[in-house]
Fold this sequence. Notes:
Keywords: DNA damage, DNA repair, DNA-binding, Glycosidase, Hydrolase, Lyase, Metal-binding, Multifunctional enzyme, Zinc, Zinc-finger. Its EC number is 4.2.99.18. It comes from Paenibacillus naphthalenovorans. Belongs to the FPG family. Pfam families: Fapy_DNA_glyco (PF01149), H2TH (PF06831). By secondary structure, the chain is α+β, with helices and mostly antiparallel strands. The protein folds into two domains: 2-120, N-terminal domain of MutM-like DNA repair proteins, CATH 3.20.190; 134-257, Helicase, Ruva Protein, domain 3 (Orthogonal Bundle). 27% of the residues lie in helices and 19% in strands. It contains seven helices and ten strands. It has helices spanning 2-12, 32-39, 113-120, 134-142, 148-152, 163-173, 186-205, and strands at 19-22, 48-50, 53-57, 63-67, 73-77, 87-93, 96-101, 107-111, 246-250, 253-257. It has a four-stranded antiparallel β-sheet, with helices on one face. Strands 2-3-4-8 form a four-stranded antiparallel β-sheet. Helix 6 (163-173) crosses helix 7 (186-205). The protein is globular and about 55 Å long.
Amino acid sequence: MENYRILLNGRIAGRTITGTEIGREKSINVSPLRFERELTGQAVRTVDRRAKHLLFPLTSGKVLVLHLMLGGMIFYGTMEEAPERTVQVRIDFGDRHLFCIGLRLGYLHLYEAEEASALMEKLGPEPLDPGFTAERFEERLRVKRGTLKSNLADQSLLAGIGNCYSDEICFHAGLLPSRRPFDLTSLEFGRLYRSMREVLIEATHYGGYMEMPLFTGDTLTGGFDSRCRVYDREGEPCVRCGRPIVRQDVSSKKSFCCLGCQR
Length: 263
């Protein structure tokens, strides 16, 4: 989502919305008629991100909030360039369009600025926020009774980490996703904090792991997928010790790790 934010800012920030089309009414929170009326003629001031949400503040003061959930993705381009996929919501910028695809669980909602802020306040701190120190990280996690897997992906505890990155962070830190935070030493917490930052910075640099390019000619989006060390790598040799990567269900979530070099 951070990759999307960066790339979209250079393409739609400041551009005026010329129309909309709704393929699935459940993907929005107002009627299609109101959605089009509220958006048409407004410009997207910027593209922001909070956790797994993309936020599009409009010149009217209202905010579009996009959450792709599982299976959702977006594409920006002309009608001719659009992938042959079912589009739930389309936002028009003249001859270019933002296509929201696979929003079976996801949504694109329109809120007043205060409503959007209230929703975002329920989320935990951003892992890469300069003010989110190693000490604050340990304080928040140490009291939790779940696994590292469940706590790293808990959006009320930390914002923006999901299934893939929680496994990659644990591998980078040499810790099993099934470990319990209250059992970690301060030294292990320090490793986990540094790994969290390094993995997320690397993932952003290489465009995350979304499978579809954001626009025609986009060679960045999805570049981190090939750099994943354990996620979806079951049976492949560990890049650190050579033992096969295994899949285990941790906290009712699929999880990948190396039983050889993760402790």
